[in-house]
């Protein structure tokens, strides 16, 4: 890759701590600008590792994430390695499957492999001559005054490295964030939800996907649910989300089978009874945490992005997408302030905190929508109404899911608009229903029906019923 323009005049050192999804993408952004980028990642290089431990096998990539990838020329490559999912496929207890489209025709989200995406981004970052990846570097501490960081190596040694800007992309349990917690006027909250998650694999059948591949399959069971996303190797990764206490009640293979027989009977032949009995106990259920904090920066020295700033529960499929969008937003702000870090960092906090807090709240809301609301007739009716209104008035009524998933409408603006639309649509439905009832009553009063014409068929019906009973 060519030396980016302006490199000779800038050459500020940017340390990206964390070489996960957001860190590796961010390295590309800073390198593209000509900064001298050093990525520090605690793990070994996942491109060489035999076993890659991650938090989920696949992820849903949507518009915000794609836009962020596009900016560094990675969109096409990643999209070509993903599987489009056009709709949710709801599996009822009886095994009936009903699709609910995500948006208009042609709109879809993509199932992408987490490890592969991370590998591709690391490889892309490494192509910049002004970017260097340092694996086996675990951040222990750093100083907000000097930017001096201390890293621990697996051989027991430590390294001290200084940077002009530290970008904390070290995930939900960020070590960079610990310095923020020591400071006054830093707001922080973390919430563990009572549910955990467990991943199970549904293998291909005769070399083909065991279920329709272009869907995100959902088995909503009110207090818990299972979802399945397709993979390129024709497997599905099924993720069971359930309260920890329910996971713990199941202690033997027979109990696993009994549970699946009761709630997900259609999946037993697809996952395979033996695999189910075995894989359920392979790993314990994993916890899910939601983290909110503010501000995201310290002076002109450090900024938090991705899960380090805002870990969200995975029910809107937006954690990574929001983290990727952080990279574009920061880049836009750097343009706006001509790379003056002392102005750009506070502006980033001002702009981004309301949006990341909004998506954290929406993800919590979707936690209930996915496992319970999709079973409700009113919810399905409202989804249809919203979609029809969106078709008729595409600029006035935009479904929330569309705004979040298929546009870059700021998350907090999407929430405000959603509340406004909901009020207008619900009031219009109420008015239409009241109008229909009053109109019907008026017509009945004006043109009373001939009572005899109604009574005679009723009598006929009654005698038929009596005849049926005596058969
Ligand atoms: C079950 C599940 C499903 C999900 N599904 C989706 C989805 O469909 N769509 C979506 O958009 N999001 C999804 N997410 C969220 C997504 O996984 C995260 O938002 C995303 O991984 C955040 O990326 P990150 O780089 O900020 O953090 P991480 O991916 O956690 O990466 C942090 C990196 O920092 C490194 N690190 C940690 N500590 C240190 C240290 N002290 N020193 C140096 N390095 C360190 C770690 O090794 C890691 O490589 C899901 C999450 C879960 C749990």
CATH class of the largest domain: Alpha Beta
Query: Could you list the spans in which at least 5 consecutive residues all have pLDDT below 50?
Result: none
Output the radius of gyration.
27 Å
Number of domains: 3
What is the name of the CATH topology of the largest domain? FAD/NAD(P)-binding domain
Our estimate of the beta-strand percent is: 15-25%
Catalytic activity: L-kynurenine + NADPH + O2 + H(+) = 3-hydroxy-L-kynurenine + NADP(+) + H2O
Main location: mitochondrion
Family: Belongs to the aromatic-ring hydroxylase family. KMO subfamily.
Protein name: Kynurenine 3-monooxygenase
Describe what you observe in this structure.
The mean pLDDT is 92. Helix 2 crosses helix 11. The chain folds into three domains: 241 residues, FAD/NAD(P)-binding domain (3-Layer(bba) Sandwich), CATH 3.50.50.60; 95 residues; 70 residues, no CATH class. The strands form four sheets. A seven-stranded mixed β-sheet has the order 6-5-14-15-16-13-17. The chain has a six-stranded mixed β-sheet with strand order 8-2-1-12-19-18. It contains 16 helices and 19 strands. The chain is globular and about 95 Å long. It starts with 12 loop residues before the first strand and ends with a helix. With 471 residues, the protein is α/β, with parallel strands linked by helices. The site of flavin-adenine dinucleotide (FAD) has 33 residues, from helix 1, strand 3, strand 9, helix 10 and helix 11.
């Amino acid at each position: 890759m060519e030396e980016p323009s302006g490199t000779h005049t800038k050459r500020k050192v940017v340390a990206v701590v964390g070489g996960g999804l957001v860190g590796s993408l961010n390295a590309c952004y800073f390198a593209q600008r000509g900064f001298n980028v050093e990525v520090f990642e605690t793990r070994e290089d996942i491109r060489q590792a035999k076993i890659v431990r991650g938090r989920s096998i696949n992820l849903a990539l949507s518009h915000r994430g794609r836009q962020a990838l596009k900016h560094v020329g990675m969109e096409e490559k990643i999209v070509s390695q993903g599987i489009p999912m056009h709709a949710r496929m709801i599996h009822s207890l009886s095994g009936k499957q009903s699709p609910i489209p995500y948006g208009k025709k042609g709109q879809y989200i993509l199932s992408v492999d987490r490890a592969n995406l991370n590998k591709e981004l690391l490889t892309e970052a490494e192509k910049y001559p002004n970017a260097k990846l340092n694996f086996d570097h675990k951040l222990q501490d750093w100083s907000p005054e000097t930017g001096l960081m201390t890293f621990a190596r697996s051989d027991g040694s430590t390294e001290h490295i200084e940077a002009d800007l530290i970008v904390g992309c070290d995930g939900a349990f960020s070590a960079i964030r610990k310095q923020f917690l020591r400071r006054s006027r830093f707001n922080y909250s973390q919430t563990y939800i009572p549910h955990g998650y467990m991943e199970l694999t549904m293998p291909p059948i005769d070399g083909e996907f065991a279920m329709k591949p272009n869907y995100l399959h959902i088995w909503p069971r009110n207090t818990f649910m299972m979802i399945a996303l397709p993979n390129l190797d024709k497997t599905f990764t099924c993720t069971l989300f359930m309260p920890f206490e329910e996971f713990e009640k199941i202690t033997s293979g027979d109990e696993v089978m009994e549970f699946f027989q009761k709630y997900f009977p259609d999946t037993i032949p697809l996952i395979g009874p033996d695999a189910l009995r075995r894989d359920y106990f392979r790993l314990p259920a994993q916890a899910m945490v939601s983290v909110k904090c503010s501000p995201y920066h310290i002076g002109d020295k450090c900024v938090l992005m991705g899960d380090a700033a805002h870990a969200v529960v995975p029910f809107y499929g937006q954690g990574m997408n929001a983290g990727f969008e952080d990279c574009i937003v920061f880049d836009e702000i750097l343009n706006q302030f001509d790379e003056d870090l002392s102005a750009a960092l506070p502006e980033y906090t001002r702009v981004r905190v309301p949006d990341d807090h909004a998506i954290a709240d929406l993800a919590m809301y979707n936690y209930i929508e996915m496992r319970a609301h999709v079973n409700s007739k009113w919810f399905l009716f409202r989804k249809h109404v919203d979609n029809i209104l969106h078709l008729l008035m595409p600029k006035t009524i935009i479904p929330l899911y569309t705004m979040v998933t298929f546009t870059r409408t700021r998350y907090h603006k999407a929430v405000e608009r959603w509340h406004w639309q909901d009020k207008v649509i619900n009031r219009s439905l109420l008015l239409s229903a009241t109008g229909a009832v009053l109109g019907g009553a008026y017509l009945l009063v004006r043109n009373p029906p001939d009572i005899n014409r109604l009574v005679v068929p009723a009598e006929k019906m009654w005698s038929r019923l009596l005849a049926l009973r005596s058969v």
